[in-house]
Amino acid sequence: MKRVFGVKKDKEPPPSVQDASDRINKRGDSVDDKIKKLDIELSRYKEQIKKTRPGPTQEAIKARAMRILKQKRMYEGQRDMLYNQTFNLDQVAFATEGIKDAQQTMSALKSANKELKGMMKTVKINDIDNLQDEMMDLMDESNEIQETLGRSYNVPDDIDEEELMGELDALEADMDMETETGVPSYLQPDKEPEDELNLPAAPIGHSTTPAGRNNAEAEDELGLPAVPRASIRG
Q1: 91 part of a folded domain
Q2: How do residues 140-169 score in pLDDT, each as one tens digit?
Q3: This protein's superkingdom (predicted)?
């Protein structure tokens, strides 16, 4: 059968918009190069026309320049047509890319919507409210436990306002004294008993002169100057 009818050839895939656009751009570049070459020839003929006198030679140069100018106009027409085709292909490519972006966006939205619906089935408002209520109850119980564990033992509760004010006044006095001296009152040294009682100094023993004689003034057992006996008798 293959020998009779032959094998069916696979069709080549149609060219994409980008392929067609690239091919037309290459043709446009080729036409632009031809136009540039014609411009160079026209500029050369222009110089020759300026240098030659009017006559058959000048007319021949003008005829060649006219031919080159017609070719240039033809190529410029082809270039404009190719530019229009490229512009149309670019519009089609832009529209195609826009449709592809829209399709991807719709697919992403559908997938996200399906996933969101599945997640919403597992999360309910009533469950959230119940969970919040349970959390509040647990927090209240925790606070009660902390307060119970934080109770103080053997702390007197019968302190009246007068005792409180007296304690505060004493603290204020201690703070003032500490500010003046720099040392708290309970750390300051106690005064000497002799300063408080203003007692006389301890008695000092009899001193002798270098010759071994007693001093002119004697002292009694209290350390006071002794009164001469003659003055007492007289």
Answers
A1: yes
A2: 999 989 888 877 666 566 667 777 777 778
A3: Eukaryota
